[in-house]
Each structure stands twice: as structure tokens, then as C-alpha cells.
């Protein structure tokens, strides 16, 4: 592994402006507590370093033609006072040709779907026999277990998002509990992650069990589904796609595990590990082995990106955006701030790795599932 140094010098006017912004932010955060000059300098430094590290890392990663694999830069040689700031960013990387030393040719574990055709068909039949028919509540107030469609507005970010929640009293502090006994068209404010959001109720409905037939299947509101036969086909396509995606992801993870077993262990520089430990979001009460966790994270990054470089795998903005949107629609709105786009991108990459090895070592299986994959 090699390293290279990128020297960063921040212009005086920019550095002073960064300090002013840091002072403004810290005054708002600390309120009654006194903000020291050290607080300002340290906060402003962290902001500049974060931006410059991510900028350099992004430039390195996007330069795929170099044939190099770069780790996140680490900071060195900081010189800082009220009027100036300079520091070095040290980037560890694998040079062009490093892929030639890796054994990518091995027989991975056998690919298996996580669910069977029989179970998919059973699910479809149970769905048809005991379908929960949606009925809209037209009068009264929101009741326990009602489904509520609402619009959540983040005024600061000027962002509106539509969600569906189930009103319930399990936890009095949640938005689900706050919805109970509200008028069907109510508008109110609610605090989510210490940030007040505007809530507008758009509709309220509940479910009753009823068998689906050709007469009522149209009430599902699914485009191109007018008969039970069309519903079976539609559900089979979507359920199989979900099973395939989960299976190919799991297979890709196993491929990476096998790749590690068939190659020498990666030797990581001590200062790279120490830098990542500082940047890792360990909780204050964490009692595990921090170095081991960071080392494994760096190794996973190396092997996943090595195989991506080897087979020219990349993730388009469209692929990432579509997957992020799918995740957003499937989780509670209070968890939106916890969405990690890097983990989502890695999940897509694992699927692509799995697809490459499946096409090579089990081409018949790959041919069966290829049409269900959502990427190129």
C-alpha cells in the first residue's frame, strides 16, 4: 500500500468567514454557555477538514481510469491560528496493477433463493382469500389502528413528504399516538428529532377482511389489474422480484467472504486505523473492540471496491435515488434522518457482485432470475 500527500491552504478571508459561521452556530447551540476562541477554531477546523476530505476522496473514487483504490484521507500537520489554516491530507491507496495480485477465480457458495415458488403461490392465495378491504372513514375522529395518510412539512428545509402511519397508543411520545382522536382533516405541529414539523391529515381508512373476486379486484386501484388472473400475475412478479433481490444480495455478501478466504489478509497502516476510530460513531458506553470493528470495516471497503474495479461495476445516480426512495417509503418518518446512503449504495453493489459471479458459475440460475434484477 502506498500513500500520497495533498497540502491544503485555506485563504485568509475564507478562514475568517468559517470562524464567524462557527461562532454563530455555537452561540445558537450553547446559548447560556460561554463560547471560547478554542471552541470556535476547533469547530471551524472540523468543518473545513470534513469538506476537504470528502472532496478529495470523491475525486479519487471518481477517477476510475487510474486503476487505483483509495481510502478516505487522514489529516496531518495542522497549522492554525486566527488568520491562517493549513494542513495535509494523507491518502493511502493501492496502485495500478494491484488487482493482478488478487485471486478472483474461485467457486463461490451455491446460490439459493431465500423463498420457494410454492410459498410465493401460497401467499398469493391467502391474500386473495382473506384480503383486507380498505374503507375510508368519512366521519368521526381517528381511532386506534386507523391508517392515516398525512403530509409532513419541514419548514426549514422547505420539504414536503407524504406518509402512511397506523394510529396507536403503544407509545404516547410518538406521532402515531398523537394522531388518535384528531379530526379527519386536522393540521397540527409535532416535534420529530427535536425539530418541529407541520402535520396535515389527508385521509383516514381502516381494513375489513373480504375475499377478492373479479367483481371487486378493481377496487385495489392497481393499474392493469382488472381480474383475479391479472392480480395473480402482478403479485407473482413483485414477490419474486423481492425474493430475488434479497437472495442475490445475500449471495454477493457470501462472494466477498469467499474472496477474503482465497486471498492473503490485507495489511492496514496503523494511522489509517486510528483515524477511522476517531471518525467512527461509537456510543459513549461502547464496550467492544473498536480497532477490530474499524479494521473489518476497512477490509470490507477494500474487498468490495476491488471486485467492483475488477468487473467495472458502478452505481448510477438513478439506481441510488430509486433505492433511497424505496427505503424512505418503507420506514417510519422519524427514522428518515437515519438513512445511510452509503449503506444503500453498498447493498446495490453487493447485488451486482452476486450477479457477476452467478452469471459465471451458475449461468442457468442467473438466466432464470435476470429479468427480476433492477440494475444493469
From TrEMBL:
Protein name from the UniProt record: Trigger factor
Organism encoding this protein: Mycoplasmopsis mustelae
